[in-house]
Amino acid sequence: MVEAVRRAAEATPAKLAFTFLENGETESARYDFAGLDAAARRVAARLQADGLAGGRVLLAINPGPDYLAAFFGCLYAGATAVPCYPPRQHGKSRELAAIAVDSGAGAVLTAGGMAATVAERFAETVEDSHFPVLDVDTVDDALTGSWTPPEIGGDDLAFLQYTSGSTGAPKGVMVRHRDIVRHVGHMYRRFELSQDSTAVSWLPPFHDMGLIAFILMPAVMAYHAVLMTPRDFVTRPARWLEAISTYRGEMVAAPDFAYELCVERVTDEELSRLDLSSWRQACNGAEPVRAETIERFTEKFGPRGFRPETFRPCYGLAEVTLAAAVPLSGSRPVIIERTWDTDEPDQGKRLVGCGVALDGHELAIVDPERLERCPDGTLGEIWVTGPSVPAGYWNREEESERTFRATLPGGDTPYLRTGDMGLVQDGELYVAGRYKDLIIIRGRNYAPSDIEHLVGPCHPRNRASGTAAFSVNTGTANAAERLVVVQEVRTRRDSDFEAIVEAIRKRVLEELEINVDVVVLTKPTALPKTTSGKIQRRACRARYLAGSLEALHEWRASTGERSDGPGELEEGWSGTAEAMEILLAENVGRVIGADVAVIDRAQPFSTQGLDSVRGAEFTGNLSVLLGVPVPAAALYEYPSIRDLARHLVEQRAAGEGSGDEL
């Protein structure tokens, strides 16, 4: 990858590589290829001087130019980059700590004034955390000239892509330089891109789709990418489409929920300003692709130039570097109706075709028990082999052998076992579900056991080893994956039920920044278990869907109608503490789809249903209403409507009109 970027910097130094949009709308920074190369050399020289070449380096940096300087700086130094979600300003950072320990990192790179916060989080969560925290912003430009080109081979590690989105033991996929160079070459050709192409993305660079498809592929193949932050997209999804329209974007990718969010929240006025005729590739992946989303999006945005064949439903995972199957160009998404024998009553569904294997790769559908190939059209586990499948998991040889080196009877070709179920019909891959008990919410993976380990001890009335976590989809037009937690309890009192539900919701939201949509409390021994006492999640899910769980109490999140945007301040709005509380409560209600009357202003945001996405939307709406930036971190520092209202009123009184961040 270093050779590829340097080649572009030498051949076309002034060619635009990356454009960064502040607030998703205004250009805040640019990198041409010469500038990207210089930024990488500057950071690399510092890493080399600190003796970090050849080691692992964590990246705890928010999306933006500093992230690119840090990531490519690691590569240029001959170090292995370890992308991580940056720590919250307030709250625990277990995932970051777990990755730091597992990777054996020698340092952490940060930027944007986060060094103190990162150091504090590590001191709280990592024992013997003596490795340095290096602020990219403070690296001297004069170091650029002292960089020494590293000796890198194709089999050397480029980065570790950690797959766990939860608090459990993380698994780092070992992505080599050759995996990336080969993979982006295959995708570049499949998507029929050129060096005149433009990609547009809001995806987080800590996730494989955002990092590989919109940072590494443009850098290696030398075309332009326009980037904004996930928060700016979630706050106003139209920004993404406006950037495609303005910059004549061709290549775009996102999980299914993002396309659905655009259908729900792009207003008629915003729609009227769009010209999407340049858009040729709309990848939909990282979570189950829903036929309803494709149809609704195409219907809404077709009049603005979006063509049905632009949708490219894809299938992939970090264990194959990124993409395992992508449709051939020029074809509309293929949707089939399938049912099959199963103990899960919602498994008769419409399946969306996710294309064919990339060039040089092969997909096999295999019976997961007998480990034999399945006939065409038969459901089985998806196996993948090919030149861009990574080497395995970092420091997990036994699990790597089991996952990355499976073989079929009579053959010695190593296959990756994906753990996903699907079928191939007429050459097209259809992904049907998960053989493994993995929960995917907004494109991130969560192990059910990790959620269960959080929930079990969160209340003294919860029965040990009596928790089941799984996801369901209601099948409605705009339904996302919904998280269900079933918990055995040692009580029958209504007041205990309410306290337990609140404890469960708060714990999961604080630790994982996702909402529990349904909590079911049952009597002890009600959950189906194996003879050895293990929870049978699939049987529990089947009983839940069939309505046959013996529930003592069930709580469901509000499914009321959400309101788009922040609304408007009434004429003569006073700005007093009481008025501010009402304003905040109304906007919480708009975001979660609840009546303002049921929102408790004294309760923590962690029990109001504001996960990371809804929290960003809420603070973004406040920023628009009040005319002053309200950071998402404010929800952690001022954890209730009452606390935040008091803070905002005090800040307005102290410096109204100053333009400072509240």
TrEMBL record:
Keywords for the protein's UniProt record, in alphabetical order: Fatty acid metabolism, Ligase, Lipid metabolism, Phosphopantetheine, Phosphoprotein
GO BP annotations listed: Actinobacterium-type cell wall biogenesis; fatty acid biosynthetic process
InterPro entries: ACP-like_sf (IPR036736), AMP-bd_C (IPR025110), AMP-bd_C_sf (IPR045851), AMP-binding_CS (IPR020845), AMP-dep_synth/lig_dom (IPR000873), ANL_N_sf (IPR042099), FAAL/FAAC (IPR040097), PKS_PP-bd (IPR020806)
Transmembrane residue ranges: none
SMART domains (alphabetical): PKS_PP, PKS_PP_betabranch
Ligase keyword on record: yes
Pfam families: AMP-binding, AMP-dom_DIP2-like, PP-binding
Gene Ontology terms for molecular function: adenylyltransferase activity; ligase activity; phosphopantetheine binding
GO cellular component: a single term: plasma membrane
The keyword Phosphoprotein is annotated on this UniProt entry: yes
Ranges of residues in domain Carrier: 575-652
Family: Belongs to the ATP-dependent AMP-binding enzyme family.
Protein name: Carrier domain-containing protein
Organism: Amycolatopsis albispora
